[in-house]
From TrEMBL:
SUPFAM superfamilies registered for this protein in UniProt: Acetyl-CoA synthetase-like
Gene Ontology terms: biological process: fatty acid metabolic process
The AMP-binding enzyme C-terminal domain, residue ranges: 410-483
The protein, known as: Cyclohex-1-ene-1-carboxylate:CoA ligase
Annotated transmembrane regions: none
Start and end residues of each AMP-dependent synthetase/ligase domain: 19-360
Keywords: Ligase
Length: 502
C-alpha cells in the first residue's frame, strides 16, 4: 500500500474517505459509464446535493433506506449521499423479486425504498407498491437534489452499524448482515493492498453494485485514486467494446467472469488480445479451479489473482500478483495484517475489523460466533506453511458416502481439466444404502461430444482420484444454475432437480 492509500485507509467513515480523496485529486476521473465521466470532486459535490435532497424528504442519521438499483453512476452517488447523512443502507440485488425484497423490507424496517422503475422489463415500482414499501423513490436517472447548506455535520465515527447486506437466500430466507463503514473500509483496504493498483490503472465493476463487493471495490478506487468503469448489464462479447474504449487494465469479478473472458479470448484471431490494455483479472466468490488459472495466464497473457470473501467478511484473503504460480493457482492468497484466520476441526474461523457485527436476528449472531469472537464461516480449508489459505469445500458440501467424507471441490477441480467440460458441480444425492451418492453435473462447450459416466469415471481414475470418490451418476445440462451476483452455482437447485422423489 502506498503512503497516500495508507493514510486514507485511516478514514473513520466512507464519507470522510471520499472527502479526503476529492480534496487530493478533485479533477481525476472516478467513475466511467458509457460516455459519462464523473471526477472525484464531482462525485463528492453530486453526493452532497443528493444528500440535501434526501434530507428534505426526511432522511436523517439512522434512517433505514433500502435501495434496489443496478450498477450505475447514480447508484454510487445515492449510496455516498446516504453515507454523508449517516443513514442506514440496505442494498438489495436488483434481480431479487417479491419474496426476497419483501423479506428485506420487513426485517430492516426500511422507511424509504429507492428503485429503478421499469428496468429490464420488470416494474420495480409496481413491486414496491405491491409490497407496501414506504417512501418509494425512482432513483434510476434523477436523484433528489438540494442545497448542501441545510445538511447537518457528517457522521464523526465509523463503528456504528450503517449497512444491512443480505446473504443469498436458498431454501430459507436470507440473513441480514450488519456492517459498519470501518468494516467496509477494512475490506477494501485488503483488496487494494493485495492488487496494488496505481492511478494509471482503469478498473471495472461488472457485478451488481448492491453486492458487498460494490463498496469493497469503491473503497479501493478511493484509496488509490484510479477510475472504474461501471457496467449496468455485463455480457460478453458486448462488454468488450467498453473495456477496449476505456482501456480497462483490471477486470474480473469471480470464477465465472474469468471463464467468460477466456472464452472470448479463444474466439479472437491468432495473435489478437480480446482486451489489449488488460493486465490483471481479479475477483473472488466461488473457488477457482487451478487449471483455469493456468489457462488464463497462458492464453490471455495476463495475471490472475483470486481471493476469498463473503457477505459477512468482504475480503478475507487475496492473491498477490507477484506470488508464485503454484500459490496463485492452488490457494486463495494470504490474509492481510489484522485478519486472524483460525482452523478449528477443518472449519475456517475469522476475527478482525473487516468482519461483520453479526446479523439482524440476534439468535443467528449468537450461533455464528464462537466463545472467542471468531466468526464461523462454514467453509473448510487449511493454511500452508507460507500462510496461504486453501479452500477444500463447505461443511454442507461434504458428501458422506458409506461413512467416508468426500470433497465435492476436489472432484470439480479435476473435472474442469477435461476438454469436454465447460463447468462442473458435484453434489451428494440421498441414497438409502450409501447415505449419499456422488452426482457430477456438467455443462459442455459447444460442439463437444456428450460425455458418458464411464468416460468421466475413467478420466478421473487416470487423474488419480480414489475409487470411492468416483461419481456414480452424471448429468449433462445446458447451463448450471447460477445466482445473479457473482455467478455462483446454486447447488441446492441441482439437489432438488436430481434427488429421487420422496
Amino acid at each position: 500500500m502506498n503512503d497516500t492509500a495508507h493514510t486514507l485507509s485511516s478514514s473513520r467513515t466512507l464519507w470522510e474517505l471520499l472527502d479526503r480523496r476529492a480534496g487530493l485529486t478533485p479533477d481525476r476521473p472516478a467513475l466511467l459509464q458509457d460516455e459519462r465521466v464523473l471526477s472525484f470532486g464531482e462525485l463528492r459535490a453530486r453526493a452532497e446535493r443528493a444528500a440535501a435532497g434526501l434530507y428534505g424528504l426526511g432522511v436523517r442519521p439512522g434512517t433505514v433506506v433500502a435501495w434496489q438499483l443496478p450498477t450505475r453512476i447514480e447508484t454510487a452517488v445515492l449510496s455516498f449521499a446516504l453515507a454523508r447523512l449517516g443513514a442506514v443502507q440496505s442494498p438489495v440485488i436488483p434481480f431479487y423479486r417479491d419474496r426476497e425484497v419483501g423479506f428485506a423490507l420487513r426485517e430492516s424496517k426500511a422507511e424509504f425504498f429507492a428503485v429503478p422503475g421499469l428496468w429490464r422489463g420488470f416494474d420495480h415500482t409496481a413491486m414496491a407498491r405491491r409490497l407496501g414499501a414506504k417512501g418509494v423513490l425512482d432513483a434510476y436517472g434523477t436523484l433528489p437534489d438540494g442545497d448542501p447548506a441545510v445538511l447537518p455535520p457528517p457522521p464523526a465515527e465509523g463503528t456504528s452499524v450503517r449497512w444491512i447486506y443480505w446473504t443469498s437466500g436458498t431454501t430459507s430466507d436470507p440473513k441480514g448482515v450488519l456492517h459498519t463503514d470501518r468494516s467496509l473500509i477494512a475490506g477494501g483496504s485488503c483488496l487494494g493492498h493485495a492488487l496494488r493498483p496505481t492511478p494509471a490503472d482503469v478498473g471495472s465493476i461488472a457485478f451488481p453494485y448492491a453486492h458487498i463487493g460494490g463498496p469493497d471495490y469503491l473503497v479501493m478506487v478511493l484509496l488509490y485514486g484510479f477510475p472504474a468503469v461501471l457496467f449496468e448489464q455485463f455480457a460478453l462479447p458486448g462488454a468488450l467494446a467498453a473495456h477496449r474504449a476505456h482501456g480497462v487494465t483490471i477486470a474480473g469479478g469471480s470464477t465465472a467472469f474469468y471463464a467468460m473472458f477466456l472464452a472470448e479470448q479463444r474466439r479472437q484471431p491468432p495473435g489478437t488480445r480480446a482486451v489489449p490494455s488488460l493486465r490483471l483479472l481479479a475477483g473472488g466468490g466461488a473457488p477457482k479451479p487451478p487449471e483455469l488459472y493456468h489457462e488464463v495466464v497462458r492464453e490471455m497473457g495476463v495475471q490472475l489473482t483470486h481471493g476469498y470473501g463473503m457477505t459477512e467478511v468482504p475480503m478475507i484473503t487475496m492473491g498477490d500478483p507477484d506470488d508464485t504460480a503454484e500459490n496463485l493457482a492452488t490457494t486463495e492468497g494470504r490474509p492481510p495484517a489484522g485478519m486472524e484466520v483460525r482452523i478449528v476441526a477443518g472449519e475456517i474461523r475469522l476475527r478482525g475489523e473487516a468482519v461483520c457485527r453479526g446479523y439482524l436476528d440476534p439468535a443467528q449472531s449468537a450461533a455464528a460466533f464462537d466463545a472467542e469472537g471468531f466468526l464461523r464461516t462454514g467453509d473448510l480449508g487449511h493454511l500452508t506453511d507460507s500462510g496461504h489459505l486453501v479452500l477444500t469445500g463447505r461443511l454442507k458440501d461434504v458428501i458422506i458416502r458409506k461413512g467416508e467424507n468426500i470433497s465435492a471441490k476436489e472432484i470439480e477441480d479435476l473435472l474442469h481439466r477435461h476438454p469436454a467440460v465447460a463447468g462442473a458441480a458435484v453434489v451428494g444425492l440421498p441414497d438409502p444404502e450409501r447415505g449419499e451418492r456422488v452426482c457430477a453435473v456438467v455443462e459442455q462447450p459447444a460442439g463437444a461430444p456428450e460425455l458418458t459416466l464411464e468416460e468421466v469415471a475413467s478420466y478421473l481414475r487416470a487423474q488419480g482420484l480414489s475409487p470411492h470418490k468416483l461419481p456414480e451418476r452424471l448429468e449433462v445440462v445446458d447451463a448450471l444454475p447460477r445466482n445473479d451476483a457473482l455467478r455462483k452455482v446454486l447447488k441446492y437447485r441441482l439437489r432438488e432437480r436430481f434427488s429421487p422423489p420422496g
